Amino acid sequence: MTPRPAGRGPEAREGATSGTEVPMDVHEAIATRRALRSLAPAEISDELIRDLAAHAGLAPSCANNQPWRFVFVAAPDRLEAMKSVFSAGNRWCHEASLMIAVVSRKEDDCVIRDRDYHLFDTGLAVAFLMLRATELGLIAHPVAGYSPDRTRDVLGIPAGFDIITIILVGRRAPEPNPTLSPEKLEAESRRPERLAFEEYAFLDRYGR
């Protein structure tokens, strides 16, 4: 499947369901993206799933190995089964309309001496997917608070694959999720602070 040009599909951002197209450039998608935890229901179609997968599949990878694999969970009974994989503090995850398990394995990508590339390359694909979801007016929140073993059992993921994250997809809810802790509620209200340029970007030599 060939992805549509950015912002040109019928789902493009909020308001697109009324037929109004609202393009979003890369900078705007990056600046708009938030890993919010208060999710409202979103319509999940086969077209949407294929769209997200196709955009993720355009990510670069070492030798074009494309090591990423995605398990899209949208059926109500499967979403119900997935609720058991999340930690107690992540009950907000249960509200997702789409859950995407992201997996990859070492042998499907470059291994150059002591450098394993599959995690890095899969992370690039996840970033592409999240930015496309943002462009479509969706929240796409990757989480770490889940049981890999239970996820493997529920989704039938073969041994040998690393379960890197689960991405929770939905619309932004108008009200905070009542299960959130005070700290998480505060994080919902404003974007968390980012490091200053000098703390992570150096010129010509590390630390300068």
Q: Describe the global form.
A: globular
Q: Give the end-to-end Cα distance, rounded to a whole number of Å.
A: 45 Å
Question: Helical content, roughly?
Answer: 25-40%
**What is the multimeric organization of the chains shown?**
single chain
Low-confidence stretches: 1-21
> What fold name goes in the CATH topology slot?
NADH Oxidase
Describe the structure in your own words.
The chain is α+β, with helices and mostly antiparallel strands. The protein has a single domain (23-175), classed as NADH Oxidase (3-Layer(aba) Sandwich). Helices cover 30% and strands 16% of the residues. The protein is built from seven helices and seven strands. Strands 1, 2, 3, 6 and 7 form a five-stranded antiparallel β-sheet that branches. It has a two-stranded antiparallel sheet with strand order 4-5. Helix 1 (26-32) packs across helix 4 (118-135) and helix 2 (46-56) packs across helix 4 (118-135). The longest helix has 18 residues, at 118-135. The radius of gyration is 18 Å and the shape is globular. The relative contact order is 0.19.
Q: Layout of helices and strands, plus pairs?
A:
Layout: H1 26-32, E1 39-40, H2 46-56, E2 69-73, H3 76-82, E3 98-104, E4 111-112, E5 115-116, H4 118-135, E6 139-143, H5 148-155, E7 162-172, H6 182-189, H7 197-200
Antiparallel strand pairs: 1-7, 2-3, 3-7, 4-5, 6-7
